[in-house]
Design goal:
alpha/beta, Rossmann fold, Alpha-Beta Plaits, 2 domains, 10 helices, CheY-like_superfamily
């Protein structure tokens, strides 16, 4: 069951908080803040609110300052803000909307108006979230797609270059997948890819990224060293070998390469990982090859080039 959307109500007057909270009761999960500072804290906490009803006149930070701070922070910039205020001139409303608010409600608070405006903007957010999800995810497997992968990889590789955080790129190719399509049909091939994707996503850590690169190729970005990643991928290889979706034997060839401050170009890393996959296939498939100059081989079917 989908979690209800969360609305953060911000006002330094308790009566106003109560009225707005009652207006939305039963429709959304309600958070309350009585100051601008408290609003900023809650907006930056997990889980984040999906929409903020924000008073303008408050004693510490006024609503305009809070809105400006939220919109300047990438972590909170996309949260819709509706001003609820006694400042009712056209200039005030124009200023609030120019700051990035999506709507402007004037006091005294009218519950029906608050409810209608919030419902409308939550529906818009739902539509926007769906479109964003479709843009980031592969439609067959539900994994992240190539577009999101490239964007995410560039951010993570920037951290590698700046802070020397460990990161290993894993490329996996399903062995003999053309035979699956030829022998069983593309509809069965699609089922196989869905099951492989489910296995990959459920057996990776939350902070790792799993994406479908295209066809039967999958990429994983793992925030760990090459040795740690190789051990985990070897376990993944065994799980894949035992999967047998629709009774079909499925194996994968894996190529791994570790990023470094001197090797933090995604395209180049992908080429090196692809070379690892090629070597895995020449070694009989269903194995893991790590791209590095000198490193001890792991036990099992993991090798290094």
């Amino acid at each position: 069951m989908m979690e209800p959307y969360t609305v953060l109500v911000v006002d330094d007057v308790k009566t106003n908080l109560m009225i707005m909270g009652q207006s939305l009761k039963g429709l959304y999960q309600i958070l309350e803040a009585s100051s601008g500072a408290q609003c900023l804290k809650l907006a930056r906490s997990e889980p984040q609110p999906d929409l903020i009803l924000l008073d303008v006149v408050m004693p510490d930070l006024d609503g305009y300052e809070v809105c400006r701070a939220l919109k300047s922070d990438p972590a909170t910039a996309e949260i819709p803000i509706i001003f609820v205020t006694g400042k009712d001139s056209d200039e005030d409303e124009q200023y609030g909307l120019e700051l990035g608010a999506v709507d402007y409600i004037t006091k005294p608070i009218r519950p029906a108006i608050v409810r209608a405006r919030v419902c409308a903007h939550i529906q818009l957010k739902q539509q926007r979230d769906r479109l964003q999800s479709m843009a980031m995810h592969d439609q067959l497997t539900g994994l992240y797609n190539r577009h999101f992968l490239i964007e995410c990889a560039s951010q993570r590789l920037a951290r590698v270059a700046r802070h020397r955080n460990p990161m290993t790129l894993v490329l996996m190719d399903v062995d003999h997948f053309k035979r699956v399509n030829d022998n069983y049909g593309h509809h069965v091939g699609d089922k196989v890819l869905i099951e492989v994707a489910r296995l990959l996503s459920t057996n990776m850590r939350r902070e790792d990224v799993v994406a479908r690169l295209g066809g039967e190729e999958f990429v994983m970005l793992m925030d760990c060293s090459l040795d740690n990643a190789a051990a985990k991928v070897e376990h993944l290889r065994h799980l894949l070998e035992a999967l047998e979706p629709d009774g079909i034997k499925v194996t994968g060839s894996f190529g791994l390469v570790e990023a470094s401050p001197y090797n933090a170009d995604f395209s180049h890393l992908l080429v090196l990982a692809d070379d690892g996959v090629y070597r895995a296939k020449t070694q009989g498939r269903n194995c893991v090859v790590c791209h590095r100059a000198e490193a001890p081989a792991l036990r099992g079917k993991v090798s290094t080039d």
